[in-house]
């Protein structure tokens, strides 16, 4: 299997690169602004750019599109930029997939839902409440309607090993390691989601691609929690957790620019019915596994 992973320098894409290569697939991955030693340049906004990796000559069987502008508040105030980075970028990747005759995998989000009654399954009706969610939904629909062999994978609250350590779990760990002064972390107790390890997304995607699955799939672990619970769980593994005081607050007091779906998150019943022996990691599994390799800052069992 030959796969081109767009956004291979990012959180989800980097795990796809690693896992697919371990499994023996021929994989190329791309970066845009953050070059890595195992990715080539490819800009989805400039399909004709001469510096782009030559995807057509590579002749991928599958193109995995992980590129996105994921800063939800920034998208809210920069609607056109969000449209370009999410929708137009996806339109270009659809065109590229058609030229290559490749199947396409698009990564989407629970932000396509309004958060009234999550966690959601694939049959629930999307109704996004912010610009990022609207553009992700438009892009999903484009992919499903224009590429016959397409797969849309919805995920949320992704964490895991990451070069730039910018996901929520990695940031709390880093703050705890760097900070020697007490500080307060205000987090919403009313935003619920289903955190998932990027490594598991790559593993599940491998199964779905191998079996030529199509349509929409939700992926999640067994965790369903709010941000306060997630932060406290992470801190429970760290020694200097006393420096961080988690203050639970109502979302309305945070004045976040973009509205957030509150009861969000995803149900993976469809995936589990098709892959009953597939086991997802929990946040606890992940924290326990990385504690093994490091630090004086980590509590020992
Ligand atoms: N992380 C989450 O919690 C989460 C939740 C739900 C859905 N998702 C979706 O999952 C997908 C992957 O997210 P992620 O967390 O892995 O994001 P990420 O770590 O921010 O990675 C985004 C990737 O997109 C690349 N990129 C940005 N603009 C590009 C462009 N114009 N052309 C080509 N590549 C470009 C980036 O390259 P450079 O960094 O090299 O510029 C990076 O490799 C996205 O579609 C996102 O919407 C993520």
Write a short abstract of this structure.
With 301 residues, the protein is an alpha/beta fold. Helices cover 37% and strands 18% of the residues.
Your description of this structure?
There is one protein chain. By secondary structure, the protein is of the alpha/beta class. The protein has a domain at 2-159 and 193-218: Rossmann fold (3-Layer(aba) Sandwich), CATH 3.40.50. It is built from 11 helices and 13 strands. It has a 7-stranded parallel beta sheet, with helices on both faces. Helix 1 crosses helix 7 (198-210) and helix 4 packs parallel to helix 5 (131-146). Bound molecules: NADP nicotinamide-adenine-dinucleotide phosphate. NADP nicotinamide-adenine-dinucleotide phosphate binds at residues 6-7, 9-13, 31-34, 42-45, 66-68, 70, 89, 107, 109, 155-158. Residues 6-7, 9-13, 31-34, 42-45, 66-68, 70, 89, 107, 109, 155-158 line the site of NADP nicotinamide-adenine-dinucleotide phosphate.
Looking at this protein, list some descriptive labels.
alpha/beta; two-stranded parallel ribbon; globular; 7-stranded parallel sheet; about 20% strand; Rossmann fold; about 300 residues; binds NADP nicotinamide-adenine-dinucleotide phosphate
The poorly predicted ranges are none
* Silhouette: globular
Beta-strand fraction estimate: 15-25%
Name of the top-level CATH class of the domain at 2-159 and 193-218: Alpha Beta
Main sheet?
7 strands, parallel
Which range best describes the helical content: under 10%, 10-25%, 25-40%, 40-55%, 55-70% or over 70%? 25-40%
Radius of gyration: 19 Å
CATH fold-level name of the domain at 2-159 and 193-218: Rossmann fold
């Amino acid at each position: 299997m030959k796969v081109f992973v767009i956004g291979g320098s990012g959180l989800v894409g980097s795990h796809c690169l690693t896992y697919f290569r371990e499994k023996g697939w021929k994989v190329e991955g791309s970066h845009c602004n953050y070059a890595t030693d195992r990715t080539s340049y490819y800009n989805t906004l400039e399909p004709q750019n001469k510096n782009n990796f030559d995807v057509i000559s590579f002749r991928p069987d599958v193109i995995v599109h992980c590129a996105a502008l994921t800063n939800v508040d920034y998208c809210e105030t920069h609607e056109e930029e969000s449209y370009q980075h999410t929708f137009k970028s996806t339109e270009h990747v659809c065109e590229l997939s058609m030229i290559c005759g490749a199947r396409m995998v698009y990564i989407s989000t629970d932000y396509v839902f309004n958060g009234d009654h999550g966690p959601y399954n694939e049959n629930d009706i999307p109704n996004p409440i912010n610009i990022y969610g609207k553009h992700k939904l438009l892009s999903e629909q484009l992919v499903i309607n224009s590429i016959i062999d397409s797969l849309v994978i919805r995920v949320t609250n992704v964490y895991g090993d990451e070069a730039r350590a910018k996901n929520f779990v990695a940031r709390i760990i880093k703050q705890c390691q760097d900070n020697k002064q007490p500080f307060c972390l205000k987090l919403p107790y009313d935003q619920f989601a289903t955190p998932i390890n990027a490594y598991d997304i790559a593993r599940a995607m491998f199964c779905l691609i191998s079996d030529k699955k199509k349509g929409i799939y939700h992926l999640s672990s067994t965790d369903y929690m709010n941000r306060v619970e997630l932060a406290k769980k992470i801190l429970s593994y760290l020694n200097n957790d006393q420096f961080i005081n988690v203050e639970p607050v109502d979302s309305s007091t945070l004045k976040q620019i973009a509205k957030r779906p509150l009861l969000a998150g995803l149900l993976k019943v469809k995936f589990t019915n098709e892959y009953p022996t597939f086991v997802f990691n929990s946040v606890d599994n992940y924290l326990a596994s990385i504690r093994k390799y490091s630090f004086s800052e980590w509590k020992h069992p």
